[in-house]
Input
Amino acid sequence: MNEVRHGTTDELLALRDGEGSAWAKAHVESCGACAGELYRLEQVRAQLRALPAFASPRDRWAPIAERARRERLQRRFSGGVGLAAAAALAGLLLVAVQGTHPDPLQAETTLKTAMARSQAMEQVLRDLDPDARALTGGAAGAVVDLQIRIEALDAQLNDPDRWGNDRAHQSELWNERAGLLSALVDVHTTRVAYAGL
Amino acid sequence: MADTIPLAEAHSLVARARAGDFGALEHLYRAYEGSVYTLARRLTRTPEDAEDVLQETFLEICRSLASWRGEGSLWGWVRRIAASKALMRYRREKLRVTEVLDDDVAERGGDDVPLRLDLEAALGRLPEKTRTVVWLHDVEGMTHEEIAELMGMTTSFSKSQLARAHQKLRDWLGEEGAVR
Output
């Protein structure tokens, strides 16, 4: 007596997915049990797809955006601001050589001091490893605000057309940058409420 | 699921996001947040894990936008990142916790399960790898080749896990379970 060979789950799943063998296709047409099992597999898939979606209990966009901005800023620190600093130093040398500024030595000292202050605060911030620190919602918002302002300053510092030979304005920008970085350090170290600068 | 962002709009959004437009990034987040979280809930153990996967996924999207070539759907690319993050979490957890029960041989919850479960409960009882395969294949529509590549396994592994999942679901749901 011949025993009927039924399709395996593997074979029926392949058939359900449109990849079944010729044997499986022919067999299902003549075998009620396998046709029933194939129908069941199709139903399970349909029911899986109909399961309700989940909704995240909290809106995660603010911390994601804050972290993404921080990462972008770090990339800029390692590249973009270096260009700004180089451009500023090149400008200083030009001024010193040409002697166009009424007091080039004073301008050079002021600008170098402002740049050094900004770079020192960058180093403090890096040493703090802000990525490893959890922030409250308020602190995270303050960080984002400060980073946006630093990015705007960096855009100005990286665009010599906007400051030309105005060393005093350059110094102001670098000092403002140092102040914003200092505020960032404060937020990360003390978690104090940021009242704006 | 179907992509909620048409391809042309996806190209425009990604171009803006690459240029640093956080408004465009937020648009992407709002469009895919629910789908990514649902996928993460299905592939991880806890809601907290799923939230972490959601966050890690979008951070990776922010970092890797340049790698989306725009050839396939944006959701397909996002889904792949999300699944990869969920699997990485699972692997880390496996390394961190010495599991007494190897989930390749024992389903979650032990043997004292009721004879009949609803589909949600039965799905949750599948071992993590098996559940991942059945979800990615049957719900997300990924091929066995794609799943195998994602999981670092063979296509035979993916196929056998799918068959095993359906055998278990049949047992737990009962004969008529699927059409209840």
About this structure: Residues 61-190 of chain A form one domain. Chain A has two domains: 9-49, 61-190. Residues 146 and 169 of chain A are 20 Å apart (CA to CA).
